[in-house]
């Protein structure tokens, strides 16, 4: 394997990182796959995928994420949401990590975060694991050979899972650390093999940098009508609410599944690939995503498989329920080549309400949209222990608090002004439970959600008749062609309407308790849209 194309002025030693054994720059997907196999990091699966496991960490570690607190960021970081690290601790962490890396083999990938050339960020991701190199190469945007020859990283991420941080020496919490330093333009990741940390680090960087340029960074997926990027839809939502599932829609062009920016020019994906959940993935309900599990170099993380037949088990969550596959955008048949869209015509806010209270779709006024954006509600189903059936509410502002370095109002005000200038229509979509709460009811059929979205996006739904929801104040359509009308009024799907009312009142109370902290910062119309 050759060393690969790299800007000769910008090797790691020019960045002051010396003494490493060997560094492979910008290896291809096939080379990284082969290197991962040679190093015993994984197994080649059916269709040429790469099967890996991540040990102890099978999800992100938000409590181990730090921002270096220095004068230059003191006034702009939202410190209540971002744990601070002293510059001196970071310096020791960096020195210790580089000392740990001496003599080892590493993979450096020079990539763009951002499909819009005017707004992209040049990031170098240095990984200890070859498969992390492959993952981030799939997930971000790949420069061509000419761009590589002059590539100068604006930020460098070093991800070294075998390095264990020391809370006393490094000012962190455990031996896992994700430390972001805006002055030194470095992110150090240690003690975790979960690949999602790589992509969400870049997202966090862009969430910090872009608002200063008037660009709204969004934890959302996006797609547009065939041949018509002016008809763009974005889908906000926390993890598991359906961003990836619903944006991959055979009747629309996929722009991206997780992170986008909204500039004066329209929307752009930050990424060049997708990271989909594979638990219970079905070939019937999600054929495009299912197919990527059998394509060359797709990274399959934490799935149980038969070691002899290599058959994947989509039901077995014994390693984690957060099992995933990572693949380049072009593995989805109708993905956009440019990953650019227009100004969103429709803004969907996805939530997975396991209380079974919220309707499957509701139209939001701009003030209500701001309320739901700041609230960032979804719910997780309770643990798998027997008898525990009460869902867990989650309120994560901007639909992504762990990735937001700035205060929520910064993102809220940007979104608000863009909605106002471009006249986007906003919707709340519940992909969670119907017919009762988790334990009694069942998850909304994907087919039903898709039918509602199709009607919202083709403009027919907005012309229909709406009722005002007594609990939440938003407007809910009364009938949608081809859909059982009872679904639209969750109260009628419960066996016991009084139980529904009690559960709805409880959820309203949760929204209201959570929102109290935003009241001092928001405008009167959003206050008026508040629930409870
Ligand atoms: N009605 C529904 N709409 C959307 N997804 C559904 C629905 N019912 C079940 N699901 C399942 O819920 C999950 C949604 O996960 P998805 O990967 O789309 O989430 P996401 O918002 O992209 O999360 P993340 O940000 O963590 O990647 C999938 O496993 C999907 O099969
Ligand atoms: O970042 C991850 O690990 C997966 C993801 O998309 C999210 O949690 O929003
Ligand atoms: Mn996703």
Strand percentage: 25-35%
Small molecules (ligands, ions, cofactors) in the structure = adenosine-5'-triphosphate, oxaloacetate ion, manganese (II) ion
CATH homologous superfamily descriptor of the largest domain: Phosphoenolpyruvate Carboxykinase, domain 1
Radius of gyration of CA atoms, rounded to a whole number: 23 Å
Q: What is the number of beta strands? A: 31
Can you tell me the residue ranges where pLDDT is under 50 for at least 5 consecutive residues? none
Number of domain units: 3
Average pLDDT score: 96
Tell me about this structure.
The protein has 532 residues and is α/β, with parallel strands linked by helices. The protein has three domains: 2-42 and 61-213, Phosphoenolpyruvate Carboxykinase, domain 1; 274-331, Phosphoenolpyruvate Carboxykinase, domain 2; 343-530, Alpha-Beta Complex (Phosphoenolpyruvate Carboxykinase, domain 3), CATH 3.90.228.20. 25% of the residues lie in helices and 25% in strands. An eight-stranded mixed β-sheet has the order 1-6-7-8-10-9-4-5. A six-stranded mixed β-sheet has the order 14-12-13-23-27-24. Strands 2-3-18-21-17 form a five-stranded mixed β-sheet, covered by helices on one side. It is globular. It starts with 21 loop residues before the first strand and ends with a helix. Oxaloacetate ion is lined by residues 60, 196, 200, 239, 258, 275. The site of oxaloacetate ion (OAA) has 6 residues, from helix 6. Involved in the gluconeogenesis. Catalyzes the conversion of oxaloacetate (OAA) to phosphoenolpyruvate (PEP) through direct phosphoryl transfer between the nucleoside triphosphate and OAA.
